[in-house]
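Field log, afternoon session.

UNIT: design team B
ACTIVITY: writing a sequence onto a fixed backbone
BACKBONE:
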C-alpha cells in the first residue's frame, strides 16, 4: 500500500467515526431516529399514509426534503463549486454541530436534528470513494456485506487482495461504531450537550485531510522535478 492510499484510508476511517457519532446521537437522544439514512423514514411515511395516521407526517416530509436537499447540493457543488467537497463536508458537519448545540432543547425530535439530515448525505457523497473501494461513511449495511464476503473469499482462495479489502471494510465498521459508542457514552453523561464531543473526530478528520493535501502537493512537486531532470 502506497503512502497516499494509506493517508486516504486514515481520513476515511476518521470521517466514518463522525458518521457513527452523528447517527447514534440522533438515535439515542431523539426518539430512535436514524438521521443518516432515509429507509426507515420513508417506510414510516408510507405506513402513516396507508393507516390514515397523519400525525407527524409534516416532520417526516421535512426530514426527507432536507436529506434530498443535501444530495442535490452535492450534484450542484460538483458542477459549480471548485473547492474540494471533502473540506466542504467537514465544514457542513461542523455547522450542523453548532446549530444543534446552541439550541439543544427543541421539543420535536425531527426538527432538533434537521442539520444532521443535510450533513450526512453530503458526507456520504464527498467520501464515498477511497482508493479503489466504494464505501459509505454514514451507514454500514453494505460495508458489513463487503467485509464478510471478502473475508470468506480470502479464506477460500487466499487472495491477498480480498484480505486487504476485508481489512478496509472491517476497519471502517470499527471506526463507525467506535464513533457511535463514544456518542452513547457522552450522551449518558452529558445529555443533549454531548453533540459538542463530535468536534473531536471532526478536528481529527480536518488534520488528516490537510496532511493528505500536503502530501499530494509534495508528490506533485517531486514528480515535476523528476520530469525536468
Amino acid at each position: 500500500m502506497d503512502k497516499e492510499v494509506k493517508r486516504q484510508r486514515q481520513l476515511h476511517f476518521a470521517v466514518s467515526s463522525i458518521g457513527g457519532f452523528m447517527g447514534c446521537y440522533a438515535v439515542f437522544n431523539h426518539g430512535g431516529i436514524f438521521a443518516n439514512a432515509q429507509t426507515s423514514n420513508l417506510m414510516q411515511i408510507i405506513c402513516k399514509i396507508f393507516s390514515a395516521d397523519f400525525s407527524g407526517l409534516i416532520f417526516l416530509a421535512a426530514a426527507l426534503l432536507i436529506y434530498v436537499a443535501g444530495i442535490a447540493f452535492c450534484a450542484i457543488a460538483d458542477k459549480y463549486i471548485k473547492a474540494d467537497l471533502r473540506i466542504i463536508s467537514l465544514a457542513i458537519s461542523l455547522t450542523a454541530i453548532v446549530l444543534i448545540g446552541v439550541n439543544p432543547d427543541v421539543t420535536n425530535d425531527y426538527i432538533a436534528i434537521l442539520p444532521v439530515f443535510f450533513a450526512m448525505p453530503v458526507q456520504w457523497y464527498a467520501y464515498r470513494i477511497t482508493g479503489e473501494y466504494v464505501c459509505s461513511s454514514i451507514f454500514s449495511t453494505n460495508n458489513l456485506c463487503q467485509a464478510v464476503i471478502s473475508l470468506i473469499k480470502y479464506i477460500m482462495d487466499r487472495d491477498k487482495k480480498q484480505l486487504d479489502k476485508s481489512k478496509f471494510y472491517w476497519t471502517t465498521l470499527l471506526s463507525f461504531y467506535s464513533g457511535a459508542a463514544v456518542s452513547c457514552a457522552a450522551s449518558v453523561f452529558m445529555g443533549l450537550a454531548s453533540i459538542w464531543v463530535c468536534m473531536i473526530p471532526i478536528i481529527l478528520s480536518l488534520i488528516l485531510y490537510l496532511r493528505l493535501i500536503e502530501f499530494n502537493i509534495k508528490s506533485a512537486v517531486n514528480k515535476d522535478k523528476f520530469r525536468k531532470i
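LOG NOTE: The chain has a mean pLDDT of 94.
NEXT ACTIVITY: expression trials, pending approval
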